[in-house]
Amino acid sequence: MANTKASAAFSDDEKAAMKAAVAEAKRAKQADAAAAEAAAVDEAIAAMPPGDRALAQKFHDLVLAAAPEAGIRTWYGMPAYTKDGKVVTFFKPAEKFKSRYCTVGFEDAAALDDGTFWPTSYAVAGIGAAEEKAITAMVKKAFAG
Questions:
Q1: pTM, rounded to two decimals
Q2: Taking Cα atoms as reference points, which of 28, 132, 129 lies closest to residue 80?
Q3: Whole-number Å distance between alpha carbons of 139 and 144
Q4: Cα dist from 76 to 52, 112, 124, 132, whole Å
Q5: pLDDT for 25-52, tens place per residue?
């Protein structure tokens, strides 16, 4: 019975995220961890539905152009980009948590502080020229210093 109760405490999506985190920890210990992580990000993007995939690939390309020094890995199964081993920014596909939009997020390591109140996540339904410019600026700021 205890196993049934514990399993009911987490949704299927939460269980999948936990399994992804375990796989990520195992990959990080591999001799070729950087290559394995980059391949995992490519696989994660390729596995997304077409709309999410296009946005994720665009975000991936923008991050790598703005911060070529960024580490690449998955984070709970999502594409993520790191600095000094800490996740700085990530892309959450809409389908992952059955949301109506994708999310671009920035973690504490991004240090995008702006006074006493600032956004750390952005809903993304499309990436045009204005969004490219904004994402590029935030990524550059997040990876500076």
A1: 0.84
A2: 28
A3: 8
A4: 16, 22, 19, 25
A5: 777 777 688 888 999 999 999 999 999 9
